[in-house]
Amino acid sequence: MRVLIVTSGSTGDVAPYTGLGARLQAAGHDVTVATHEHFRDQVALPFVPLPGDLREILPQAHGQDGRGSGTGPRALVQLLRIARPLVAELGAGIAASVRETQPDVVLLSTVVAPLGYQVAEAAGIGCAGVFLQPIHPTGAFGPVLLGGRSAGPLGNLLSGRLAEAAARPLYRGPVRELRSRLGLPRRSLSRLQHDQRHRWPTFHGFSPVVVPRPSDWPASQEVVGYWWPARPPGWTPPPELSAFLAAGPPPVFVGFGSMAPGHGDRLSGLVRAAIRQTGRRAIVQAGWSGLRGAGDDPDVLSIGPVPHDWLFPQLAAVVHHAGAGTTAAGLRAGVPAVPVPVLADQPFWARRLHDLGVSPAPIPLSRLRADRLAAALTAVTTQPAFAQRAQTIAQRLAAEDGAARIITWLDGVQ
User: Fold this and answer.
1) Rounded alpha-carbon distances, angstroms, from residue 118 to 174, 273, 339
2) Backbone CA torsion sign across 154, 343, 323, 246
3) HSE value, Cβ hemisphere, 13 Å, CA-based, for 39
4) CA 95 – CA 51 distance, rounded (Å)
5) For residues 267 and 16, what is the distance between their CA atoms, to the nearest angstrom?
6) What are 307-341's pLDDT values in tens digits?
7) What phi, psi does 220 have (nearest 5°)?
8) Which among 85, 162, 189, 233 has the fewest CB atoms less than 10 Å away?
9) Cα(343)–Cα(346) distance, rounded to whole angstroms?
10) Could you give the domains of the chain?
11) How far apart are CA 84 and CA 241, in angstroms?
């Protein structure tokens, strides 16, 4: 079967689908990945480009400068506003990728799903959501894009529906235009979402150990387990990284992924001060912010992109922005975390890490100070309960196979 996986966003929104695609390919399917051009070198599968680049719009989001919150209704509205140009051009890109690859089935990530459903309908092919976040309204927890804080079952459900309604204007115009271009009848977006969600399944690529499936979700919403990123073919670690790891006790890791672009100088000084206070060895990953370690300190190494599945098991703890992918990688490695969430779904995952007992209370980027970071790092590296709990969860994740359910579903698609 020809399968097209479509996703949009940052590295954490792309990497899990490389692993899912590799598993589907091993099961005998022809798999193509459609995403932004700058990810081409990270995808070993057949590739088609989508328009847009999140790096051009993400710096505008609330919370990136560390001076204010990136969560809450105001931040969500602003995030949806700045995402509008990206969403507006994605519909045509998805339609073009389907015309080029002629798939039998299209698998759609969270951001592209409202558009991809329309393309699948016009092409007369099967589709499914493959989501990394639990965005369907539920009474089990608060809306993920508002931080996930609970307001009780009824409050959670109502606020989840409000968050869903707030996102509709982002897609209403692009969906209307796309359906017109594809020759589909005009229908309200809310009705389309309801019908498409119940006609086709949505598979959530995280573990029920981390987020149990809410009992009030419809049967179409499944939680299947993580899809682990595929390591780049032929990748080998840089010699200086291997030498650093071998030269002493396991270091801690600090990296904020795609967050805080342009704020590397300020964050670098803060991180270096925190590391000095702990007295530990550290690896600092540049990410989109350009974070840097101390060049003259032999106990601190600065690195670029490195597969987390290789690096994280060799560490004492990981400090990260609590993106869905990095959160999953830390849990898989069985190492404790210090979450520093910035925006969108990150506070939700940060809270999950704390509730699971693998991290102290999250430190939002807007409240990050050297002494707070040092105290949190000291706690997770000196209190055995954090590492013990992380290792227990890692053992449970190792027994799961998030791709198996999708392979079974594909086998039943006509």
Assistant:
1) 11, 51, 37
2) negative
3) 29
4) 12
5) 27
6) 999 999 999 999 999 999 999 999 999 999 999 99
7) -70, -15
8) 233
9) 6
10) 2-230+399-412 (3.40.50.2000), 239-398 (3.40.50.2000)
11) 40
